[in-house]
Write a structure and sequence with these properties.
Elements: H1 11-22, H2 33-41, H3 49-59, E1 63-64, H4 73-85, E2 90-94, H5 97-100, H6 104-117, H7 127-140, E3 145-149, H8 152-164, H9 174-180, H10 187-206, E4 213-215, H11 227-242, E5 248-254, H12 258-278, E6 290-293, H13 303-318, E7 324-326, H14 339-359, H15 366-389, H16 394-404, E8 422-425, E9 431-435, H17 443-460, H18 466-473, H19 487-490, E10 502-507, H20 515-526, E11 530-533, H21 540-550, E12 554-559, H22 564-567, H23 571-577, E13 584-589, H24 598-607, E14 612-614, H25 620-633
Parallel strand pairs: 1-7, 2-3, 4-5, 5-6, 6-7, 10-11, 10-12, 12-13, 13-14
Antiparallel strand pairs: 8-9
Amino acid sequence: MIRVRQERIDDAAFARMRREVLSAWPTGREVDLDEAAEYQRKMPEGKNFTKVLAGYRASGTIGLFPRSGVPVVEEEIRLLRAMNGAGVRLFPFTTDSYTRNLQLEKAQKGLEESIRTGKAKLNGYPIINHGVSVTRRVVESCDGAFDPRSSRVANSFVGEIAFASGMTAMPNSFFGWIGGYDKTATPEECIETAQYLGRLIGCYADRGVVISTDTHGWLPNGVVPMYVNMATQIIEALVSACQGVRSVVPLTNFQGNIAQDIADIRVSERLFRKYLDRFGFHDTLIPGVIGNQSSLFPFPQDIGRAFGYINYTAMVAAMTPLAACSVKTVDEALGVPSIESHVQTYRSAHWIFNMMRQQQFEPDSPAIRQEERMAELAVTAILDRVIEMGDGDVAVGTVRAIEAGVLDSPFSINIYPKDQVLGARDLRGACRYIKYGNLPIPEEVREYNDQKMRERELAEGSRLDMKTSVADFWALAEGAVHGTVNRAEAEPQTLALSRRPVVVTGTVGVDSHVIGTKFLSCVLREHGIRVIALGAQTPPEEFIQAAAKNGADAIMITSLYGMARMDLEGFREQCTEAGIGGILLYIGGILGIGARNFRDDEAAFRRLGFDRVYPPQSDPVLSVRDLVADLEAGGRL
């Protein structure tokens, strides 16, 4: 029985829900809806996200929409003022991973450690711990509009603090949680959380304050066309509009192929307007479309290549009708960016925005028109099937569609999607499907897609598969339109083992970066190793329990969010207490916040009892070889 419906939350029920949300931390007592709306109405227009974005669009210029967020208030203010100096007026305000998961005691500890040491111990701004009065200082410190980031668990509370503090936009992307942030929440729970934020924004609208929501859709975490992403963004917009949201912003992702990227941007707003009008939301504004330098793909660690990647994105953005664009900083791959890198990155992007827009260059080609047609056909087919499955109710249709795989995407963190689709790039770098799963992709789109995939297979002389998809995932960071697989080296070698080792894999704490652990698990299985895959967001004690229960030889942890050291303090000792003190412990990835020296991280995790420590982008085959060598050295093979 599906309990969620596409209908507005009753006022009395919403009041009860708000009391529960705001009771989770003492700063909730600072929120007064009427006082907050009055505060919002008195703010200058330059603080309102909808008006700033619409202003960029009307003037024909393009704004920057960067990512930022550090734990200490004074440092956050300093960062924002520096970005102001580089021309930034739209601020996506990143909360830290503990806040996003409502682990507020840990967030408080990280905040206090950041203040005490002068070094960031959190990967964002702990907005709930800081509260309304402190965060208003941040909002008032610079010229611009704020759009905070959270995930499902804390989304309602973050929204309450953010809007009461003067922030005027916030994503309401429940498919983003399914794709990349929440491991165990049901689709119904994700929709219900989005309905809360939508209703909260609707309450502000009733009081004369327009707060926008930008839609992110189902982030695919891999190389596939943006059809499902675009369709799910529109579903998110419909769910929000039903709760009273008056301003929605499509957020389109750059994939690295000019024709496909331009086509997706052109199609996006057209389809948003079509479906909003179809459901009667004629007064819901679309103040502009924002482009996003896709968070889906690895970012170059080399500064020169990083500038190239950023400026390519800026150039393509400037050739489209985008009102704003998000680009990463040149040191994105190294951790929390420095103020200087923010400034230099945005100056560089602005230079390209200005040069291109002044020339009023509007690209057109048969390839762009073809990609527009493919996107419009595919997205329309997906949306119409979802609506049909819900008998006209978008929320009901969404739940049924995920269950049936009609909505699906690769490498999702959540346990409920089918995860039956896979993609790769064609010879020119456009993203296509290798496996469709149960997606309702029209025949015309399939024929075009399959033709492009056959062209690459003929050129390379091999079938496209998971290894191709992973190689293509890294391609942009390496300055290539698609990856290269060395088939001789890629084939797993049969290991002459006296027994089959058992390995537990996963990411630790609240880290939602799932691709690394899924690929590692795949490589281990290919080499004949039994894998207990726990996926993303795994508490340390679950690793230990799984290892003890299954007699595991090793625990292999991947981590990319920079806070694993806090998560794993005392981990070896806990293994000993559980009777598995001799188990091999491996970890790899981004293992700290900010610019890192890998040798320092390696030494730190060695002190925590880890046997092997790997830097980012390490070949999983190396860890397999190390595992066999360590087991043989210990007399366990």
